[in-house]
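Progress report, Aim 2. The chain analyzed during this reporting quarter is listed below.
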Amino acid sequence: MMIIGADYHPGFQAMAFVDEETGEFGERELRHPEEAERFYRNLKGRQVRVGMEATGHCGWFEALLGQLSRKLCG
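Predicted structure tokens for the chain:
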């Protein structure tokens, strides 16, 4: 499983991740919304858990994760 922690900012998200299968870990900044959407869509077929801070400007991100969850798990 890949575990991602996202710190949400108005123009980007700072994220840290660890892949429990490979041991890979790191940090990245993903620009909103194009780069972030591309990153999360490329995780297709992987088991992923995302934790993020509560904020009022992340509705599109919550919708994206919900959409991907249905597509990737369904």
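The helical segments are 34-41, 59-73. Strands lie at 2-8, 12-19, 25-31, 48-52. These observations will guide the mutagenesis work planned for the next reporting period.
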